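Protocol step 4 of 6.
Sequence for YceI-like domain-containing protein (Epilithonimonas xixisoli) entered exactly as in the expression construct, tag removed. Do not edit the line below.
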Amino acid sequence: MKFLYLLFGFITILAQAQENFVKINGSTNVNKFQCVNNKFKAENGVFTFTERKLPNIILKVNDFDCGNKMMTKDFQKILNSEKYPDMTIKFINFTKTQKSYNAVVEVRMMNQSKRYNVEFNIENNKLIGRKNVKFSDFNITPPKKMGGMIVVKDDLNLIFSLSTKI
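Step 5 output, C-alpha cells:
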C-alpha cells in the first residue's frame, strides 16, 4: 500500500513538473489580478526548440482563469472571446546566449499581432520568460468599472512557462 502512495505521489509531482502556463498579471487603481491559462500541451509532452521547428502555441481565450468568475468573464469580454476565441504565441526566432535564451515571439489576438523580444531562462526543465506588454499594444482600451471608480492599468506582465528539452 505504501508503494502505491509513493507511486501516486511521484506521478503527481511528474505531472505538475510538466505543466505549461501563460500568466497575465495586471492591476487596477484598487487591486491586482492574475489570469492563467494552463490547458495547453506540446504534441509530444515537451516543447522543442530547433532551427527547423519552433513552437506555435494556440491558447483558447476561454481557458484563462482569473480566480474569480466575474473577473474571468470580464477578461474574456475584453479580449472578445466570442469573436476571437484563440490567442497565438508563435516563436519566430530562438537563440542561446551565455546565460539564457533570447526569442522573438509573436503574440496574436483579436486580429492584432505584436512581436516582442523575450529573454528566457531554464528552471526545473521549464523555459521561463517574462515580458511587460500593454493592452494598448493590441488596440484595447483598458476597461473601467463602477462608473470609472475602478480603472484597469494599461501595463501587463506576461509570464511563459513551457516544459522543454533543450
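Step 6, annotate. The chain has one domain: 20-163.
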